[in-house]
């Protein structure tokens, strides 16, 4: 499994015509180092000069482009999202759009996933397809593990029990599974017959329909480090043809989407790939990658898939911890845990209340790409329990094409070996035999449909109401037993966008306790009591949908997120307008706001020998978004000192300690790092207080 770091909503959209998800293919790969360089700032790994913007309408997008002095790189119309190239650092640039009219969210182009993959065990792969080369002899294995040519314990009657499902006629016929990964080998002997006929490079927006051209594309990258997607694809769709291995859904088709080339291409291109797969006939999306964090765009892309009836499966992760990783933790997604040969959770697998089920993920035998010698290899990770789960979902979709994502999930969960919940394996280890037994009862025997919930948050205080932007929303099933490892009560989390809305797709029906907290003070600044909280209930009804969701309106007693604050010291934008202050002064709350390049000037009288300490309290100490920058000038406007961060990359407030050389007037100038380095920064959350002290 590969690592990903990464608020918000998606209105229901009809499935658009094939190929309509993005601009026309260009075939051109971005090469500008300023647009493609990956950097890490404040713990956020992103493409240095790229910003992702979710917009409400075309006018808002164009105004944001003008405000940033940006160039549009690409667009995903279905998600109303655009990728912009900016001159300044993207993390800082995105903050200037917080609260910007018509902008639903703005975030740096995240690149939190790193390569190589973090699957814990990958044994050397053999060239050629022979049994002898792998040291795996059919006579050395139980005969019921030979389902094609090579032994596969994962599919035997003690694990997935694949043959029982196949014999009943459930092999994934008519189902397309998108392999959202590094580029899968469509020419491998076990995969060629089940390629869906298209493959996609989301970076250049190019669709490949020719196998040789696809392999040439792969070989133009770094093929020595591209194998993961082939392993994953063979877990699902390897043909049952008397050679090599078989996938759990051996008559399903696979659709490669290359989001690792071999490094992670960034959230925008991942979202573009997800939308393309949905628009091009995928019934199931397999995601054998993940990490920590929360990103608006990727959440919306998966919501788009769920809203269009597409099942989404994600590997839980290989952190060995009880924790929620994304995308496995997003509402509506089926999260898979890796099991060993004893049907128990592996030591490396991530686990927790959010997981759905377990499947084999230790030393499973899968296909090795032809550019690395072909043949087969043993490999481990939740990266492979995930596609076994996607393949099991394909058995359901093949039998019942109209089954909703939640129905598919519950069909898998109610037919496991254990039939009971634990945080280590969800509802238990998948069992294709009992799944087939359920399907033989007809599609009316499937579990009931899930729910779609829309939450609208507004803030209310003495000045009236305002949109509940940037609020955290938690849905917790009633009766949840904290600390009980066998409690299956669902719990979901999402964050509102700048319109105050949060969506939960394909979740369990039932009565929920809803917890809402106002905007994170780390972003907006302020006092804890100004954030506000709400606790109530809502009912998620079975069968509610993207077009007719269950709705909850929450009125939160909280300080509104002030998108047009008043600075008590303005105008103080030049030396002649400087606001006088004295030693031992701490100013009121002030803002770097109101123009693209706001410099706030303060004057004070000093004497020769005075050692002064000037401190800006900003994001690191009082919250908000201001990464401050502080200058000290003398009366002749000579720069005496300047400071960006008190501790580089950790404490982004600014501080200057300086001994004055003569009597006279001096000036402190506060601005943002972005402005100080030539960019624009006009964020209403750019709040600060300036302190001036004499220390001798």
TrEMBL record:
Keyword Protease: yes
Residue ranges of every copy of the Fervidolysin/DR-A0283-like Ig-like domain listed in the record: 486-536
Entries under InterPro entries matching the protein: Fervidolysin-like_N_prodom (IPR054399), Ig_Fls_DR_A0283-like (IPR056489), Peptidase_C_arc/bac (IPR007280), Peptidase_S8/S53_dom (IPR000209), Peptidase_S8/S53_dom_sf (IPR036852), Peptidase_S8_His-AS (IPR022398), Peptidase_S8_Ser-AS (IPR023828), Peptidase_S8_subtilisin-like (IPR050131)
Position of the signal peptide: 1-19
Alphabetical GO biological process terms: proteolysis
Domain Fervidolysin-like N-terminal prodomain positions: 34-109
Gene Ontology MF terms: serine-type endopeptidase activity
Active site (catalytic residues): 181 (charge relay system), 228 (charge relay system), 383 (charge relay system)
Stretches assigned to the Peptidase C-terminal archaeal/bacterial domain: 598-672
Presence of the UniProt keyword Ligase in the record: no
Alphabetic keyword roster: Hydrolase, Protease, Serine protease, Signal
Superkingdom of the source species: Bacteria
Ranges for domain Peptidase S8/S53: 172-428
Family: Belongs to the peptidase S8 family.
Protein name, entry field: Serine protease
Lineage, broadest ranks: Bacteria, Thermotogati, Deinococcota, Deinococci, Thermales
């Amino acid at each position: 499994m590969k690592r990903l770091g990464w608020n918000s909503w998606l209105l229901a959209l009809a499935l658009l015509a094939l190929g309509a998800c993005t601009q026309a293919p260009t075939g051109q790969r971005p090469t500008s180092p300023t647009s493609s360089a990956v950097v890490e700032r404040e713990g956020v790994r992103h493409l240095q000069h790229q910003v992702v913007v979710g917009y409400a309408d075309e006018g808002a997008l164009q105004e944001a482009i003008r405000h940033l002095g940006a160039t549009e790189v690409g667009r995903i119309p279905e998600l109303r999202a655009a990728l912009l190239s900016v001159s300044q650092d993207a993390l800082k640039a995105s903050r200037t759009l917080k609260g910007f009219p018509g902008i639903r969210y703005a975030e740096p182009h995240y690149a939190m996933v790193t390569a190589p993959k973090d699957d814990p065990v990958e044994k050397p792969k053999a060239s050629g397809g022979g049994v002898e080369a792998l040291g795996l002899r059919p006579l050395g294995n139980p005969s019921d593990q030979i389902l094609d040519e090579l032994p596969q314990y994962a599919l035997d009657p003690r694990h997935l029990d694949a043959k029982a499902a196949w014999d009943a006629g459930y092999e994934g016929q008519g189902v397309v599974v998108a392999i959202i990964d590094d580029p899968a080998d469509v020419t491998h002997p076990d995969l060629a017959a089940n390629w869906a006929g298209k493959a996609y490079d989301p970076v250049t927006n190019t669709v490949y329909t020719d196998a040789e051209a696809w392999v040439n594309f792969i070989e133009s990258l770094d093929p020595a480090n591209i194998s993961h997607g082939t392993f994953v694809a063979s877990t699902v769709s390897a043909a049952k043809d008397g050679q090599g291995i078989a996938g759990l859904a051996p008559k399903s088709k696979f659709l490669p989407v290359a989001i690792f080339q071999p490094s992670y291409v960034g959230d925008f291109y991942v979202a573009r790939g997800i939308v393309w797969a949905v628009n091009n006939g995928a019934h199931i999306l397999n995601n054998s990658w993940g990490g920590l964090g929360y990103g608006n765009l990727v959440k919306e892309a998966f919501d788009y898939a769920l809203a269009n009836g597409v099942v989404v499966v994600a590997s839980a992760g290989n952190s060995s911890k009880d924790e929620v990783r994304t995308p496995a933790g997003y509402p509506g997604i089926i999260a898979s845990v890796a099991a060993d040969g004893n049907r128990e959770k592996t030591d490396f697998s991530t686990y927790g209340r959010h997981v759905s089920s377990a499947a084999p993920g230790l030393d499973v035998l899968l296909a090795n790409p032809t550019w690395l010698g072909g043949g087969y290899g043993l490999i481990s990770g939740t990266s492979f329990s995930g596609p076994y789960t996607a393949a099991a979902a394909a058995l359901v979709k093949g039998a019942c094409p109209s089954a909703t994502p939640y129905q598919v999930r519950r069909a898998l969960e109610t037919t496991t070996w254990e039939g009971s919940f634990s945080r280590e394996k969800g509802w238990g280890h998948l069992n294709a035999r009992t799944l087939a037994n359920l399907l033989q009862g007809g599609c009316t025997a499937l579990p009931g449909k899930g729910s779609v919930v829309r939450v609208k948050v507004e803030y209310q205080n003495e000045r009236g109401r305002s949109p509940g932007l940037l609020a955290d929303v938690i849905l917790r099933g009633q009766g949840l037993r904290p600390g009980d490892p066998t409690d299956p009560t669902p719990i979901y989390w999402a964050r509102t966008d700048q319109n105050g809305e949060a969506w939960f797709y394909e979740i369990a029906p039932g009565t929920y306790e809803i917890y809402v907290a106002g905007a994170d003070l780390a972003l907006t600044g302020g006092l804890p009591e100004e954030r506000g909280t709400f606790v109530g209930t809502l009912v998620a009804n079975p069968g509610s949908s993207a077009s007719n969701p269950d709705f909850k309106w929450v009125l939160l007693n909280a300080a509104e997120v002030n998108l047009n604050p008043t600075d008590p010291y303005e105008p103080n934008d030049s030396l002649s307008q400087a606001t006088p202050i004295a030693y031992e002064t701490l100013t009121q709350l002030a803002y770097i706001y109101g123009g693209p390049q706001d410099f706030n000037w303060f004057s004070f009288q000093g004497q020769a020998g005075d050692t002064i300490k000037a401190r800006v309290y900003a994001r690191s100490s009082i919250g908000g978004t201001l990464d401050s920058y502080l200058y000290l000038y003398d009366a002749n406007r000579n720069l005496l000192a300047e400071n960006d961060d008190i501790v580089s990359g950790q404490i982004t407030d600014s501080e200057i300690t300086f001994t004055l050389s003569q009597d006279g007037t001096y000036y402190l100038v506060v601005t943002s790092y972005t402005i100080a380095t030539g960019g624009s920064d006009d964020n209403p959350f750019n709040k600060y207080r300036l302190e001036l002290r004499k220390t001798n």
